[in-house]
Amino acid sequence: MTEQPLLNEIKALIKSSGPMPVWRYMELCLMHPHYGYYVSRDPLGREGDFTTAPEVSQMFGELLGLWTASVWKQMGSPQLLRLIELGPGRGTMMADALRALRVLPPLYQALHIHMVEVNPVLRERQSATLSGVRNSITWHDSIDDVPDGPGIILANEYFDVLPIHQMVKREDGWHERVIEIDPNGNLQFGAASEPTPRFDVLLPPLVRAAPVGAVFEWRPDTEIMKLATRVRDQDGAALIIDYGHLRSDAGDTFQAIARHSFTDPLKAPGQADVTAHVDFQALARAAEDVGARVHGPVTQGDFLKRVGIDTRAAALMSKATPEVATDISIALKRLTDTGRSGMGAMFKVLGISEPRLTGLAGLSDLEHAGGDK
């Protein structure tokens, strides 16, 4: 049996301090300084645990580069633009975006690249991927460390790994969901003995009406408010792409993925990617609350089609061998299809901007989910 130091540590913490809230368990699984999943490995690609959109096709990053260019023009083409990526994986998306941006020398020369990444293994991969880039590239542990200035923030599959609180509805109110130890010494889900006072006051009507036994997930607004405040005060926009739902609703989406398959999130802490769906209505509401403008959300399939993925695919296929053209066609379907194997409907795209930017490419102000409309 393999050693599980993090599992042992979590059990010791529960024995000494009592049941552990789901958010704390998730935080330890991902960010424990020695055994955290995101601190110690490269989880991407065929050999890893999951594949992100930039790893599926170069078209994804290229189109985000062109989207960046359109926003830069709307901003009045500032002579300095901080292009900030949160959780940049292997650097693939940034490399593809920068390749597309080379066709616009005034913008390319204005770029200062900022990579927000805590994983030293991935930082090395990003550095290697971007080794040919002449722009200034700086790595940071947090967006708080990125210098001031007009900026465009790209966050692809970033919010889904931020720890969630889970609440369980009981007859007497909403109780925090916790991790505890069962009689056989294994981890199991439980609930705090006392309800959280007045928790339902803050809930959207749809969630408040959920039946007894329902689970509701929420994330603190800290991270989205940082992004929204930055673009509001310093000019620019943020693009958030993740899997999740358009409206706040009850449901348990806490999951673990290892080797491209779902696994029990309580079985091997620190050895699988634990995530939960993103509540885009909550993100939009928090961004609006600090005075930023919200655009969308729309599905990834719609967004990519609006910014020209079909045209880009056709251009690449026209110059490709039949085998490569087939690969491009498969990648296009994977990124835009709405079926189970496609990312087109499951993933959503949300834009947040400085209030003067009234429209962003691929997103419509008419479709945002900021309120209970």
From TrEMBL:
The UniProt entry, under Pfam families, shows: Methyltransf_28
**This protein's record includes keyword Transferase:** yes
This chain's protein is named SAM-dependent methyltransferase
Question: GO molecular-function annotation terms?
Answer: methyltransferase activity
One GO BP annotation of this record:
methylation
| SUPFAM superfamilies, A to Z | S-adenosyl-L-methionine-dependent methyltransferases (SSF53335)
Any idea which UniProt keywords this protein has? Methyltransferase, Transferase
